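Cross-posted from the bioinformatics board.
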Amino acid sequence: AQKITQTQPGMFVQEKEAVTLDCTYDTSDQSYGLFWYKQPSSGEMIFLIYQGSYDEQNATEGRYSLNFQKARKSANLVISASQLGDSAMYFCAMREGERDYNTDKLIFGTGTRLQVFP
Amino acid sequence: DTGVSQDPRHKITKRGQNVTFRCDPISEHNRLYWYRQTLGQGPEFLTYFQNEAQLEKSRLLSDRFSAERPKGSFSTLEIQRTEQGDSAMYLCASTWGAGPATNEKLFFGSGTQLSVL
């Protein structure tokens, strides 16, 4: 069964520094997608970045990059130049590709609370 | 594109009462999902619709829970005979998808926070 593990309940980072949020996953599929979402205190889940299992390059979206290590089954999120507005919960999620045609879902980890201080 | 809307934002109810939540997805999206999120946890999948068809249900969705998407547009999630353990944030998400692709990102609403007293 697919599973996402985020082992860091909380992380602190100083403004303008980089931070890495860890994510490991478990799946028997060869085709899958990995996502990171941000959830501010307002509650809405905001998409940050996507990595496909067959993508040869690590995904990047502005200040966000995904350090994808397929053999280790890890998909860590790197936020460069942290800003105070980055303080939020961050969730790693996975969608399996080798699934029944009529099924679809993202499976989420338990999240990491990031706090950025001045 | 007005985003995914959920109503109400907050609901307080007494144990044993029925509650209904509404989700309006992004208009062109054919796929709609309901998730439940408790404090300190990630969202847990409840159910998935493609157009009006409910195609997947989690074992978390007990027989007290029912979801509909009657015309393939908005969706409702009803909880009958609420219990204190139902207290959670209920999130709705939507996307456009066809087939077993992996890259379609989900767009989430702000959720309905349910408190059962």
